[in-house]
Amino acid sequence: AQSVSQHNHHVILSEAASLELGCNYSYGGTVNLFWYVQYPGQHLQLLLKYFSGDPLVKGIKGFEAEFIKSKFSFNLRKPSVQWSDTAEYFCAVKRVNDMRFGAGTRLTVKP
Amino acid sequence: DTGVSQNPRHKITKRGQNVTFRCDPISEHNRLYWYRQTLGQGPEFLTYFQNEAQLEKSRLLSDRFSAERPKGSFSTLEIQRTEQGDSAMYLCASSLVGVSAFFGQGTRLTVV
Q1: B44/A101 touch (CB, cutoff 8 Å), yes or no
Q2: 3-state secondary structure at position A105
Q3: Which end is more exposed in chain B, N or C (fewer Cβ atoms within 10 Å of the end residue's Cβ)?
Q4: Is pLDDT above 80 for B9?
Q5: Hey, are the CB atoms on A46 and B48 less than 8 Å from each other?
């Protein structure tokens, strides 16, 4: 079945640690790729997106993601996390009409 | 606030009752999506409109579920004969063609 997979369900880091969250998808053809963040009690917000061009995309709050077409991956990175990054992170893949989400990764940053 | 607006924010209903949720998208957005999110899961696609046309429906959308977008602006999602398994957060998102989707705060449904 076509899907979006996020490898880590819960990641716990200390402040200033580096972050990498994995995302793989199984759809063929042209896709648009997104990372959304959901802070506690808030709605989903767009962190960054890839449509075309440079496969390394930069988003808000120091996040970046790299699209590797051959690996069907779109991993999210941040060199130094902060306590305020504690949230749930969702990878999403958009084809022609719809957008499908991974199950999410809960990030807890310890002060 | 000119973002996506969903009402009500919370709904508690008895099993077997019908419920209706409303979504007001960002005004110029022609695409509107409905998702369902349960605890510990990512949003699951339910259905999608382009203007007033419902272009795709997930098989998750049983015949008890119906969605409309009568004038290509706001949308409603109705669940008939609710079941406990329908308890979830129902999310609405809107976008323009080729642009990222913006999400509303969601409607949390609890079926007791």
Answers
A1: yes
A2: strand
A3: N
A4: yes
A5: no
